[in-house]
Specification:
The chain is mostly beta strands and 219 residues long. The protein contains one helix and 17 strands.
Amino acid sequence: MRKTFVLLILFVSSAAVAQVKFSKNLADVQGFCSDFELVAYVTLTNNSKDSVFVWERTKNDRSEGWESAVCDNKTCYGSGTSSGVFELNPNDSFTFRFYYYPSKTKGVGNAEIVIHSQDNPENRDTLEVSGACWGVSLHETGIQNVSIYPNPAKNYIYVKGMHTAKTKFSGYDLLGNLVLEGPNFDEKGIEVRDLNSGMYLIKLETENHQSFTKVFRKN
């Protein structure tokens, strides 16, 4: 009796875990506004016994002039389509794609895609895609092996691989507006606690006019 009860628990637990699953639930894509497209690639795996799934675009916020597209394993759908049906056999996977088309327009996008089994709506997962194109250059020159952390950040960001003395910094939002600025920084880092949640670009410039730029997310 006890053995049967344990096996039943294991069966229920494995059934609860087995589901359709994105390899990640948040994807950030950035690029130049002159780029034709900004693409998020996320693997979708079916760990369940279901084979017919529905995707729904539950959020599709984007700047004026921007378009977007969702691509499952057979078809791509434009901004005017909010849902679609596709097949995915058990234990199979494919690369789910989400596109932003900025059309040379500075802006941002935020979309949410929910995928669920057609027969079992509880078998589901969600993907959020944030997109941005920049009104300031992302070109990195002169400095190698420099990184910032943590990313995402909450209160401070820190720089690894650069001498902080006589290095000025500036931060920009997605539209190129200056939101941070300072003549130098130290081991205490750069304070970002007062920024709104979202994506930003930090630019560092040494006294020798070497520069480094990096995108970071503020939680």
